[in-house]
Amino acid sequence: MPYLPWEQAWQEALFGEAGFYRRPEGPAGHFRTAVHAAPTALARAVARLARTVGCSGVLDLGAGRGELLTALARLSDEGEPLRLHGVDVVARPPLLPPAVGWSRADGGIPYAVFAGALVVAWEVLDTVPCPVLEIGPDGRPHVVLVDAGTGRERLGGAPADADLDWCRRWWPADGLEEGDRVEVGRTRDAWWEGHVRLLARIGGGVLLAVDYAHTRAARPPLGTLSGYRAGRLVPPLPDGSCDVTAHVALDAVASAGHVAGAAAGTLVPQHAALRSLGVRGDQPGADELLDPAGLGGFTWLLQRVTSR
């Protein structure tokens, strides 16, 4: 098979016709997220957040098989019901409650579901494919190429100017050594910025991103590109058999959202965010959500978008 830039191989591996996120077992067959650990506690926290920020609904982007939305639907008798809608690359899950709306990401999403919603991107940005660069023997960054069938890599040519511009601001290559890597977050920034601009056009709302993240003060020198298969961390192989993920430069995402018109927002550890929303360690499964060394180590970015 030909060697491809990681960004291209990654896109096909996750979202192509035979991509990982289209597999029948769904993401839950391969890795555990917060909603699997403590669905009721998490749903109550998300519902409380939505009502606190004045949102009438929750729109879950990258909703998997609707696990969070199903948990939220079960809380319909706890206060004013929220309008619920999910988006993913698969058809509507068969066990999704009737009150929950659903759209395929590749089939067009009705703008109306965004209006006044808390738009949730839970572990979504880490799956947005991005260029992977590596410092070569010449001391310069090169695009990393990968064979999708074997996972073998080699260095390609020089990065695009837009990627180098992003690196200069958010992940400088100065001081990096041969073999060090940069995961260029430009594509994640653009994904987020697009949703900010959409919300601004149709009446505003609030965006929430939750992901493993890092900031400019502490970028990982070897990058974070990883794979998950059947509950285990594995080498990233872009053949559709495993998840491919990389942590998110969430400070850059926040800046992109602000430039696009959102409020500045702040980065908050998940354990602190959930405690502020009433999650306690004595609730079933909540201790896992609050563990700073585990799921509690995720970072939250919340940005409000007003109508233009």
Question: How are the elements arranged and paired?
Answer:
Elements: E1 3-5, H1 6-15, H2 34-37, H3 39-52, E2 57-61, H4 67-73, E3 83-88, E4 101-104, E5 117-122, E6 132-135, E7 141-147, E8 153-155, H5 161-170, E9 181-183, H6 186-202, E10 205-211, E11 213-214, E12 226-229, E13 232-234, E14 243-245, E15 248-249, H7 250-259, E16 266-269, H8 270-276, H9 286-289, E17 299-305
Parallel strand pairs: 2-3, 2-5, 3-4, 5-10, 11-15
Antiparallel strand pairs: 1-7, 6-7, 6-9, 7-8, 10-17, 12-13, 12-14, 16-17
Helix pairs in contact: 3-4, 6-7
Structure description:
By secondary structure, this protein is an alpha/beta fold. Helices cover 27% and strands 24% of the residues. It has a 7-stranded mixed β-sheet, with helices on both faces. Strands 1, 6, 7, 8 and 9 form a 5-stranded antiparallel β-sheet that branches. It is globular and about 60 Å long.
Q: Strand order across the biggest sheet? A: 4-3-2-5-10-17-16
Radius of gyration: 19 Å
Number of helices, where a helix is a run of at least 4 consecutive DSSP H or I residues: 9
Distance between the termini: 48 Å
- Unreliable segments of 5+ consecutive residues: none
Helix content: 25-40%
Structural class: alpha/beta
Number of strands: 17
Shape by Cα distribution = globular
Summarize the main sheet.
7 strands, mixed
Quaternary structure classification:
single chain
Helix and strand sequence: EHHHEHEEEEEEHEHEEEEEEHEHHE
Compute the average pLDDT.
Answer: 93
Strand content: 15-25%
